[in-house]
Amino acid sequence: MFKRSVFWIAIWSVSTTLSWGQGLGQQNRNWNEQIQQLSFLDRSASQYRLGAGDLIEVSIFGVEDFNYSLRIDSLGQINLPFIGSITAAGLTPTELGHELKSTLEGRLIRNPQVSVFVKEYRSQPVFVLGAVRQPGQYQMVYQLNLIDVIAMAGGLEIERAADYALVRRRGSGTDNEGINPSRTNGESAQLEVVEIDLKELLEGEDFSLNIPIQGGDVIHIPERKMELFYVVGEVTKPGAFEIPPQNDVFVSQAVTWAGGPMKTAKTDKGILVRYNGKGERQEMAVNFSDIIQGKKSDFLVQPNDIIFIPGSTAKSLGYGLLQIIPATLSGSIIWGAIR
């Protein structure tokens, strides 16, 4: 019965950490706000370019019989009466209208006012995968940049998203200016994967990283690997805490994140449980009181460390927690609770 009670207390202590939000994606809490502010700012600067599969409507003002719905074929062409085949792919609707106007003018109609309207967008799909709110396929109806596409997918899943994005596309033979050199996937010499530093883009405001997206691109936001440590025992807020990416956490900070010691805590009799490279468990006596007061050197917390601060009323229970938490570090119950 005692073991069962300790087990559920351990799960509770870990699961409640999420409500405090210590370190879990804290470095990019405001990224979605920044994404919304940056998205669609320049969408009117360039029109959509037609492609195979698009359904367009071509009409001439004042000429009722000249009104056709046409789907651009796989070669990027359309076939119109009195004109024949003409290449539409790669042109904007306005450019195609001018092309048709110049073809018709002087031959059949004087000063024709040609209108081209896109009825169905089929040629410019983009795929957004990974740690976004609404992953899936989206159609480009005008020129989009990376931030625009992430915004279309509802923004980032902040607690899961890594601090970089991968844009996979067919290689064009040229590098994208202003970004890190692209990496070629070994499976295909023509498949190009570009890594974009979201932190630099959203916090450093390096807008050269907001690259134009092409039809067929796959944008993947990987899930970041969380490195956790645990603080249990006589502290105000026991639970699991994340070591922020590219940042160090000292043991004095770890105790502070857990709300600090309670009045009943025996901070001079603390224990640190750590696993070495072989997975072997090690227990070290630590005088947290001296560390917090600066009498002894502070030291770095490592992933999966368990910091235990005992107390007069919870000594035996605390030792029980030390036995249970390491055994469930990779278990679905604890991971499910904090994610």
Characterise the protein shown here.
Helix 3 (31-38) crosses helix 5 (146-152). It is rod-shaped, with a radius of gyration of 30 Å. The protein folds into 3 domains: 2-24 and 226-338, Outer membrane lipoprotein wza fold like (Roll), CATH 3.10.560.10; 31-45 and 124-221, Roll (Outer membrane lipoprotein wza fold like), CATH 3.10.560; 55-120, wza like fold (2-Layer Sandwich). The longest helix has 14 residues, at 2-15. With 339 residues, the protein is α+β, with helices and mostly antiparallel strands. The model is unreliable at 1-27, 173-189 and 326-339 (pLDDT under 50). It has a 6-stranded mixed beta sheet with strand order 7-6-13-9-11-10. Strands 15-14-18-16-17 form a 5-stranded mixed beta sheet, sandwiched between helices. The protein has helices spanning 2-15, 17-20, 31-38, 93-104, 146-152, 198-202, 251-257, 288-292, 315-327, 332-338; strands at 55-60, 63-71, 77-80, 84-87, 114-120, 125-130, 136-139, 144-145, 164-170, 183-184, 191-197, 212-213, 218-221, 228-233, 239-242, 270-275, 281-286, 306-309.
Q: Roughly what is the average pLDDT, rounded to an integer?
A: 79
Low-confidence stretches: 1-27, 173-189, 326-339
Give the domain tally.
Answer: 3
- Might you state the CATH topology name of the largest domain? Outer membrane lipoprotein wza fold like
Instruction: Sum up the overall morphology in one term.
Output: rod-shaped
Largest sheet, in brief, is: 6 strands, mixed
The CATH class label of the largest domain is: Alpha Beta
CATH homolog superfamily of the largest domain: Outer membrane lipoprotein wza domain like
CATH architecture level-2 label of the largest domain: Roll
Individual helix count = 10
Please state how the strands of the largest beta sheet are arranged side by side.
7-6-13-9-11-10
What is the strand content? 25-35%
The helicity comes to: 10-25%
Radius of gyration, whole Å: 30 Å
Order of helices and strands: HHHEEEEHEEEEHEEEHEEEEHEEHEHH
Structural classification? alpha+beta
Distance from N terminus to C terminus (CA atoms, Å) equals 28 Å
How many strand segments?
A: 18
